[in-house]
Amino acid sequence: MSYQSEQNTSTRILMGPGPSDVHPRVLKAMSIPLVGHLDPEFVEIMDDIKEMARLTYKSKNEMTFVVSAPGSAGMETCLINLLEPGDEALICSHGVFGSRMADIVGRCGAKLRLVEAEWGRHIDPDRVRDVLKDSRPKLVAIVHAETSTGVLQPLEEIGKLAHEAGALFLVDAVTSYCGTELLVDEWGIDAVYSGTQKCLSAPPGLSPISMSPRAVEVITNRKTKVQSWFLDLSMVKNYWEGAKRTYHHTAPVSAMYALREAYRLVLEEGLEARWERHWENHRRLRQGMEAMGFEFLVEEGYRLPMLNAVKIPGGVDDAVARSRLLNEYNIEIGAGLAKFAGKVWRIGLMGESSSENHVNILLSALDEIIN
Ligand SMILES: *Cc1c(COP(=O)(O)O)cnc(C)c1O
Question: Separation of 285 CA from ligand 1 center, angstroms?
Protein backbone atom coordinates (compact mmCIF):
# COMPACT_ATOMS: atom_id res chain seq x y z
CA MET A 1 0.00 0.00 0.00
CA SER A 2 1.18 3.55 -0.63
CA TYR A 3 -0.48 6.86 -0.13
CA GLN A 4 -1.28 7.26 -3.82
CA SER A 5 -3.96 4.62 -3.55
CA GLU A 6 -7.08 4.96 -1.49
CA GLN A 7 -7.08 3.02 1.76
CA ASN A 8 -8.23 -0.51 1.14
CA THR A 9 -7.74 -2.39 4.41
CA SER A 10 -9.36 -5.79 4.76
CA THR A 11 -12.64 -6.32 6.52
CA ARG A 12 -11.51 -8.32 9.54
CA ILE A 13 -13.42 -10.36 12.05
CA LEU A 14 -12.14 -8.88 15.30
CA MET A 15 -11.76 -11.53 17.99
CA GLY A 16 -8.74 -10.21 19.83
CA PRO A 17 -8.42 -8.11 23.00
CA GLY A 18 -10.01 -5.08 21.28
CA PRO A 19 -11.02 -3.30 19.19
CA SER A 20 -14.10 -5.42 18.61
CA ASP A 21 -16.41 -5.40 15.61
CA VAL A 22 -18.55 -2.28 15.32
CA HIS A 23 -22.26 -2.25 14.44
CA PRO A 24 -23.13 -0.60 11.08
CA ARG A 25 -25.29 1.93 12.93
CA VAL A 26 -22.20 3.09 14.83
CA LEU A 27 -20.20 3.38 11.59
CA LYS A 28 -23.03 5.33 10.05
CA ALA A 29 -23.12 7.75 12.99
CA MET A 30 -19.48 8.62 12.29
CA SER A 31 -20.35 9.82 8.81
CA ILE A 32 -22.83 12.44 10.07
CA PRO A 33 -21.53 15.96 9.24
CA LEU A 34 -19.70 17.67 12.08
CA VAL A 35 -21.16 20.37 14.27
CA GLY A 36 -19.06 22.65 16.43
CA HIS A 37 -18.11 21.12 19.75
CA LEU A 38 -19.87 23.92 21.68
CA ASP A 39 -22.92 23.92 19.38
CA PRO A 40 -26.02 23.55 21.57
CA GLU A 41 -26.86 20.41 19.58
CA PHE A 42 -23.50 18.89 20.45
CA VAL A 43 -23.93 19.81 24.13
CA GLU A 44 -27.15 17.79 24.00
CA ILE A 45 -25.21 14.85 22.59
CA MET A 46 -22.72 15.13 25.45
CA ASP A 47 -25.61 15.17 27.93
CA ASP A 48 -27.12 12.05 26.33
CA ILE A 49 -23.76 10.33 26.61
CA LYS A 50 -23.44 11.25 30.30
CA GLU A 51 -26.90 9.89 31.00
CA MET A 52 -26.20 6.63 29.18
CA ALA A 53 -22.81 6.31 30.90
CA ARG A 54 -24.59 6.50 34.29
CA LEU A 55 -27.18 3.93 33.21
CA THR A 56 -24.52 1.49 32.03
CA TYR A 57 -22.28 2.00 35.07
CA LYS A 58 -25.36 1.49 37.29
CA SER A 59 -24.46 4.70 39.06
CA LYS A 60 -26.01 7.98 40.12
CA ASN A 61 -22.62 9.68 40.26
CA GLU A 62 -22.89 13.30 39.20
CA MET A 63 -19.31 13.31 37.93
CA THR A 64 -19.67 10.88 35.04
CA PHE A 65 -18.30 11.77 31.63
CA VAL A 66 -15.89 10.79 28.92
CA VAL A 67 -12.17 11.50 28.69
CA SER A 68 -11.20 12.30 25.09
CA ALA A 69 -8.49 9.65 24.94
CA PRO A 70 -8.22 5.85 25.23
CA GLY A 71 -8.66 3.63 28.27
CA SER A 72 -5.11 4.20 29.48
CA ALA A 73 -5.88 7.93 29.74
CA GLY A 74 -8.95 7.08 31.83
CA MET A 75 -6.66 5.09 34.12
CA GLU A 76 -4.23 7.97 34.35
CA THR A 77 -7.06 10.49 34.91
CA CYS A 78 -8.38 8.57 37.91
CA LEU A 79 -5.00 8.02 39.54
CA ILE A 80 -3.48 11.45 39.04
CA ASN A 81 -6.60 13.31 40.17
CA LEU A 82 -6.99 11.23 43.33
CA LEU A 83 -3.33 11.01 44.35
CA GLU A 84 -0.99 13.75 45.50
CA PRO A 85 2.74 13.47 46.12
CA GLY A 86 3.38 11.58 49.36
CA ASP A 87 0.00 9.78 49.37
CA GLU A 88 -0.01 6.02 49.57
CA ALA A 89 -1.81 3.79 47.04
CA LEU A 90 -2.42 0.07 47.23
CA ILE A 91 -2.44 -1.51 43.77
CA CYS A 92 -3.64 -5.08 43.33
CA SER A 93 -1.84 -6.37 40.27
CA HIS A 94 -2.46 -9.61 38.42
CA GLY A 95 -1.43 -8.73 34.90
CA VAL A 96 -0.32 -6.03 32.46
CA PHE A 97 -2.93 -3.46 33.42
CA GLY A 98 -2.32 -3.74 37.16
CA SER A 99 1.38 -3.09 36.48
CA ARG A 100 0.42 -0.08 34.38
CA MET A 101 -1.49 1.38 37.35
CA ALA A 102 1.52 0.76 39.60
CA ASP A 103 3.75 2.60 37.13
CA ILE A 104 1.43 5.63 37.15
CA VAL A 105 1.35 5.72 40.97
CA GLY A 106 5.12 6.18 40.94
CA ARG A 107 4.86 8.97 38.38
CA CYS A 108 2.43 10.80 40.72
CA GLY A 109 5.10 10.85 43.42
CA ALA A 110 2.86 8.64 45.55
CA LYS A 111 4.04 5.68 47.63
CA LEU A 112 3.21 2.33 46.09
CA ARG A 113 2.01 -0.69 48.03
CA LEU A 114 1.61 -3.73 45.83
CA VAL A 115 -0.39 -6.92 46.24
CA GLU A 116 0.39 -9.25 43.38
CA ALA A 117 -1.06 -12.52 42.15
CA GLU A 118 0.55 -14.88 39.73
CA TRP A 119 -0.56 -14.17 36.15
CA GLY A 120 -3.67 -16.16 35.36
CA ARG A 121 -4.89 -16.04 38.96
CA HIS A 122 -7.10 -13.57 40.83
CA ILE A 123 -6.21 -11.50 43.88
CA ASP A 124 -7.20 -13.18 47.13
CA PRO A 125 -9.01 -10.65 49.38
CA ASP A 126 -7.14 -12.05 52.42
CA ARG A 127 -3.89 -10.72 50.98
CA VAL A 128 -5.45 -7.26 50.77
CA ARG A 129 -6.78 -7.61 54.32
CA ASP A 130 -3.25 -8.40 55.57
CA VAL A 131 -1.68 -5.38 53.91
CA LEU A 132 -4.42 -3.09 55.20
CA LYS A 133 -3.63 -4.14 58.81
CA ASP A 134 -0.54 -1.98 58.86
CA SER A 135 -1.16 0.64 56.20
CA ARG A 136 -3.60 3.45 55.50
CA PRO A 137 -3.59 3.95 51.73
CA LYS A 138 -5.64 6.72 50.19
CA LEU A 139 -6.94 4.34 47.57
CA VAL A 140 -7.09 0.67 46.68
CA ALA A 141 -7.10 -0.05 42.94
CA ILE A 142 -7.73 -3.22 41.00
CA VAL A 143 -8.51 -4.46 37.48
CA HIS A 144 -11.93 -6.10 37.15
CA ALA A 145 -11.28 -7.92 33.86
CA GLU A 146 -7.53 -8.52 33.30
CA THR A 147 -7.37 -8.64 29.53
CA SER A 148 -3.77 -9.84 29.58
CA THR A 149 -4.66 -13.08 31.39
CA GLY A 150 -8.43 -13.63 31.06
CA VAL A 151 -9.12 -13.38 34.80
CA LEU A 152 -12.40 -12.06 36.20
CA GLN A 153 -11.61 -10.50 39.56
CA PRO A 154 -14.36 -10.52 42.21
CA LEU A 155 -14.65 -6.98 43.56
CA GLU A 156 -17.16 -6.72 46.36
CA GLU A 157 -15.08 -8.01 49.26
CA ILE A 158 -12.01 -5.98 48.33
CA GLY A 159 -14.22 -2.91 47.98
CA LYS A 160 -15.51 -3.44 51.53
CA LEU A 161 -11.98 -3.86 52.89
CA ALA A 162 -10.91 -0.65 51.17
CA HIS A 163 -13.77 1.31 52.71
CA GLU A 164 -13.19 -0.17 56.18
CA ALA A 165 -9.62 1.09 55.91
CA GLY A 166 -10.87 4.54 54.93
CA ALA A 167 -9.59 4.23 51.36
CA LEU A 168 -11.24 4.98 48.04
CA PHE A 169 -11.93 2.00 45.79
CA LEU A 170 -10.75 2.43 42.19
CA VAL A 171 -11.65 -0.10 39.48
CA ASP A 172 -10.41 -0.66 35.92
CA ALA A 173 -13.52 -1.75 34.03
CA VAL A 174 -12.12 -1.31 30.53
CA THR A 175 -12.93 -4.85 29.41
CA SER A 176 -15.74 -5.78 31.81
CA TYR A 177 -17.94 -2.72 31.12
CA CYS A 178 -21.10 -3.67 29.18
CA GLY A 179 -19.91 -7.28 28.95
CA THR A 180 -20.44 -8.67 32.43
CA GLU A 181 -22.04 -7.55 35.67
CA LEU A 182 -20.62 -4.28 36.98
CA LEU A 183 -22.58 -2.41 39.67
CA VAL A 184 -20.66 0.74 40.47
CA ASP A 185 -22.84 2.15 43.26
CA GLU A 186 -23.87 -1.15 44.82
CA TRP A 187 -20.28 -2.41 44.97
CA GLY A 188 -19.01 0.82 46.51
CA ILE A 189 -16.74 1.75 43.63
CA ASP A 190 -15.48 5.32 44.08
CA ALA A 191 -13.71 5.74 40.77
CA VAL A 192 -14.07 3.74 37.59
CA TYR A 193 -12.84 4.07 34.03
CA SER A 194 -13.42 2.13 30.85
CA GLY A 195 -12.76 2.22 27.12
CA THR A 196 -15.01 2.24 24.10
CA GLN A 197 -13.43 -0.46 21.92
CA LYS A 198 -14.09 -3.53 24.02
CA CYS A 199 -17.59 -4.67 25.01
CA LEU A 200 -19.10 -1.30 24.12
CA SER A 201 -18.10 -1.92 20.48
CA ALA A 202 -17.42 1.67 19.53
CA PRO A 203 -14.17 2.79 17.90
CA PRO A 204 -11.17 3.14 20.26
CA GLY A 205 -10.12 6.48 21.63
CA LEU A 206 -12.55 7.44 24.40
CA SER A 207 -12.73 6.61 28.08
CA PRO A 208 -15.97 6.87 30.07
CA ILE A 209 -15.19 7.58 33.74
CA SER A 210 -17.25 8.02 36.90
CA MET A 211 -16.40 9.41 40.34
CA SER A 212 -18.40 8.96 43.55
CA PRO A 213 -19.18 12.00 45.72
CA ARG A 214 -16.37 10.84 48.08
CA ALA A 215 -13.91 10.84 45.21
CA VAL A 216 -15.10 14.25 44.04
CA GLU A 217 -14.52 15.59 47.56
CA VAL A 218 -10.95 14.29 47.50
CA ILE A 219 -10.39 15.99 44.14
CA THR A 220 -11.95 19.25 45.35
CA ASN A 221 -9.77 19.32 48.47
CA ARG A 222 -6.46 18.76 46.71
CA LYS A 223 -3.58 20.87 47.99
CA THR A 224 -1.46 20.54 44.87
CA LYS A 225 -2.27 21.00 41.19
CA VAL A 226 -2.76 17.87 39.10
CA GLN A 227 0.50 17.49 37.17
CA SER A 228 -1.28 17.04 33.83
CA TRP A 229 -3.12 19.99 32.31
CA PHE A 230 -5.21 17.91 29.90
CA LEU A 231 -6.42 15.35 32.43
CA ASP A 232 -7.08 17.74 35.34
CA LEU A 233 -10.73 17.03 36.18
CA SER A 234 -11.22 20.36 37.95
CA MET A 235 -10.99 21.93 34.49
CA VAL A 236 -12.37 19.12 32.31
CA LYS A 237 -15.58 19.12 34.33
CA ASN A 238 -16.46 22.65 33.23
CA TYR A 239 -16.59 21.33 29.69
CA TRP A 240 -18.97 18.48 30.59
CA GLU A 241 -21.02 19.88 33.48
CA GLY A 242 -23.07 22.93 34.39
CA ALA A 243 -25.38 25.27 32.53
CA LYS A 244 -22.59 27.12 30.77
CA ARG A 245 -20.00 24.89 29.12
CA THR A 246 -16.55 26.35 28.66
CA TYR A 247 -13.96 25.35 26.12
CA HIS A 248 -11.34 22.98 27.46
CA HIS A 249 -10.29 21.02 24.38
CA THR A 250 -12.06 20.17 21.13
CA ALA A 251 -14.01 16.98 21.70
CA PRO A 252 -13.58 14.29 19.01
CA VAL A 253 -17.01 15.03 17.56
CA SER A 254 -17.37 11.99 15.26
CA ALA A 255 -16.16 9.61 17.95
CA MET A 256 -18.82 11.01 20.30
CA TYR A 257 -21.49 10.44 17.66
CA ALA A 258 -20.31 6.84 17.47
CA LEU A 259 -20.31 6.42 21.23
CA ARG A 260 -23.83 7.78 21.53
CA GLU A 261 -25.07 5.23 19.01
CA ALA A 262 -23.11 2.39 20.63
CA TYR A 263 -24.71 3.26 23.99
CA ARG A 264 -28.15 3.29 22.36
CA LEU A 265 -27.50 -0.23 21.07
CA VAL A 266 -26.49 -1.40 24.56
CA LEU A 267 -29.64 0.04 26.13
CA GLU A 268 -31.90 -1.29 23.38
CA GLU A 269 -30.56 -4.78 24.01
CA GLY A 270 -30.70 -4.27 27.78
CA LEU A 271 -27.62 -4.36 29.97
CA GLU A 272 -28.53 -7.61 31.71
CA ALA A 273 -29.38 -9.33 28.41
CA ARG A 274 -26.05 -8.16 27.03
CA TRP A 275 -24.16 -9.63 30.01
CA GLU A 276 -26.03 -12.91 29.51
CA ARG A 277 -25.22 -12.93 25.78
CA HIS A 278 -21.52 -12.63 26.60
CA TRP A 279 -21.75 -15.60 28.97
CA GLU A 280 -23.73 -17.64 26.49
CA ASN A 281 -21.17 -17.20 23.73
CA HIS A 282 -18.34 -17.89 26.15
CA ARG A 283 -19.96 -21.25 26.98
CA ARG A 284 -20.42 -21.95 23.29
CA LEU A 285 -16.77 -21.20 22.53
CA ARG A 286 -15.59 -23.20 25.50
CA GLN A 287 -17.50 -26.27 24.42
CA GLY A 288 -16.05 -26.13 20.92
CA MET A 289 -12.49 -25.38 22.03
CA GLU A 290 -12.49 -28.15 24.61
CA ALA A 291 -13.84 -30.59 22.03
CA MET A 292 -10.78 -29.70 19.92
CA GLY A 293 -8.48 -30.37 22.84
CA PHE A 294 -7.80 -26.80 24.01
CA GLU A 295 -7.45 -26.05 27.71
CA PHE A 296 -8.31 -22.78 29.40
CA LEU A 297 -5.56 -20.96 31.27
CA VAL A 298 -7.72 -19.67 34.11
CA GLU A 299 -9.44 -21.87 36.67
CA GLU A 300 -13.18 -22.20 36.32
CA GLY A 301 -15.19 -19.60 38.21
CA TYR A 302 -12.65 -16.85 37.47
CA ARG A 303 -12.80 -16.86 33.68
CA LEU A 304 -13.85 -13.84 31.70
CA PRO A 305 -16.69 -14.35 29.25
CA MET A 306 -15.32 -11.76 26.80
CA LEU A 307 -11.63 -12.68 26.86
CA ASN A 308 -10.84 -16.36 26.64
CA ALA A 309 -7.23 -17.29 27.38
CA VAL A 310 -6.50 -20.76 26.02
CA LYS A 311 -3.25 -22.71 26.00
CA ILE A 312 -1.79 -23.32 22.54
CA PRO A 313 -1.65 -27.09 22.05
CA GLY A 314 1.74 -28.74 21.57
CA GLY A 315 2.69 -29.05 17.92
CA VAL A 316 0.81 -25.89 16.91
CA ASP A 317 3.03 -22.99 15.83
CA ASP A 318 1.65 -19.80 17.37
CA ALA A 319 2.78 -17.32 14.70
CA VAL A 320 1.90 -19.55 11.75
CA ALA A 321 -1.58 -20.35 13.06
CA ARG A 322 -2.40 -16.73 13.85
CA SER A 323 -1.14 -15.47 10.52
CA ARG A 324 -3.19 -18.12 8.70
CA LEU A 325 -6.26 -17.05 10.68
CA LEU A 326 -5.62 -13.46 9.63
CA ASN A 327 -4.60 -13.98 6.01
CA GLU A 328 -6.85 -16.85 4.98
CA TYR A 329 -9.88 -16.24 7.19
CA ASN A 330 -9.61 -12.53 8.08
CA ILE A 331 -9.87 -13.44 11.76
CA GLU A 332 -7.84 -11.59 14.36
CA ILE A 333 -7.20 -13.24 17.72
CA GLY A 334 -4.83 -11.98 20.41
CA ALA A 335 -1.34 -13.32 21.12
CA GLY A 336 -0.14 -14.11 24.61
CA LEU A 337 1.65 -11.27 26.40
CA ALA A 338 4.98 -11.35 28.27
CA LYS A 339 5.47 -14.77 29.83
CA PHE A 340 2.48 -16.15 27.92
CA ALA A 341 3.92 -15.18 24.52
CA GLY A 342 3.84 -18.22 22.25
CA LYS A 343 1.99 -20.21 24.91
CA VAL A 344 -1.47 -18.64 25.11
CA TRP A 345 -4.06 -17.19 22.76
CA ARG A 346 -6.53 -14.58 23.84
CA ILE A 347 -9.83 -14.93 22.08
CA GLY A 348 -12.09 -11.93 22.40
CA LEU A 349 -15.87 -12.21 22.33
CA MET A 350 -16.57 -8.55 23.00
CA GLY A 351 -19.69 -6.58 22.19
CA GLU A 352 -20.65 -7.12 18.54
CA SER A 353 -17.98 -9.83 18.36
CA SER A 354 -19.82 -11.88 20.97
CA SER A 355 -22.10 -13.83 18.66
CA GLU A 356 -22.83 -17.42 17.76
CA ASN A 357 -21.63 -16.68 14.24
CA HIS A 358 -18.25 -15.41 15.45
CA VAL A 359 -17.80 -18.51 17.58
CA ASN A 360 -18.71 -20.84 14.69
CA ILE A 361 -16.43 -19.10 12.21
CA LEU A 362 -13.45 -19.27 14.55
CA LEU A 363 -14.05 -22.90 15.51
CA SER A 364 -14.31 -23.95 11.85
CA ALA A 365 -11.18 -22.03 10.87
CA LEU A 366 -9.18 -23.42 13.79
CA ASP A 367 -10.35 -26.92 12.99
CA GLU A 368 -9.02 -26.59 9.43
CA ILE A 369 -5.74 -25.03 10.52
CA ILE A 370 -4.93 -27.40 13.36
CA ASN A 371 -6.05 -30.71 11.89
C1 LIG B 1 -7.44 -2.27 26.87
C2 LIG B 1 -7.27 -2.08 28.33
C3 LIG B 1 -6.75 -0.90 28.89
C4 LIG B 1 -6.19 0.22 28.06
O5 LIG B 1 -7.07 0.74 27.16
P6 LIG B 1 -6.51 1.51 25.85
O7 LIG B 1 -7.75 1.99 25.21
O8 LIG B 1 -5.75 0.48 25.07
O9 LIG B 1 -5.61 2.59 26.32
C10 LIG B 1 -6.71 -0.78 30.26
N11 LIG B 1 -7.14 -1.78 31.07
C12 LIG B 1 -7.62 -2.93 30.57
C13 LIG B 1 -8.07 -3.99 31.50
C14 LIG B 1 -7.69 -3.12 29.19
O15 LIG B 1 -8.15 -4.28 28.70
Answer: 23
